[in-house]
Specification:
By secondary structure, the chain is α/β, with parallel strands linked by helices. The protein has a single domain, classed as Alpha-Beta Complex (Spore Coat Polysaccharide Biosynthesis Protein SpsA, Chain A), CATH 3.90.550. The chain is built from 5 helices and 13 strands. Strands 1, 4, 5, 6, 8, 9, 10, 11 and 12 form a 9-stranded mixed sheet that branches. Strands 2-3 form a two-stranded antiparallel sheet. A hairpin with a 2-residue loop joins strand 9 and strand 10.
Amino acid sequence: MNAMILAAGRGERMRPLTDHRPKPLLEVGGKALIDWHLEALAAAGVQRVVVNVAWLGEQIRAHVGDGRAWGLEVCISDEGATALETGGGIHRALPLLGDAPFWVVNGDVWSDFDPARLPAAPQGLAHLVLVDNPPHHPAGDFVLNGNRVRNDGPGRRLTFAGIGCYRPALLADHATGAFRLAPLLQAAAAAGAVTGGYHHGAWSDVGTPERLQALRRRLAAPSV
């Protein structure tokens, strides 16, 4: 199984912390955010992890190396000075990910979700992990009805956790360059080609210094 960690973003909302360190290398619970993902993916049986980089990418490249520290093969997809956004970054990395379905996790989230719960292949084009809507995103992203993900309609409205399983066909026909993943997921959901699962455990979008500090306090608490 191959997987990808999205790690190329500038982290504008996290400034000034990200002025000299990329967001995936910010530490929580005594280790970098990206380390949590690498450990979880290795434990779930992933063999190759593609990490895309742009802003301060040389720091991420030096930190992860070739992946042997985690028992992985790590490949770097270098996007240059400007990140290609979520969709464009995955699209550029498709030759490294191969022809089979693959897992993707946003490098700036933290969760106790076990990637082994993801399917090896989605029923349609994508399978998404959904979580309760956080205070900063009360409207959510998608509706989960059974295991079907829709843009609207009956069901529970939830937030996309930034963790999913995709077929290359979801992105393969898109033009190269910078583009967001969300519109492709929305189009696939409208066509009935997206399934999903609800994660009721811990999850945090580490997008601001305030949320970073809140997560650090949570992981330092004796109950965690």
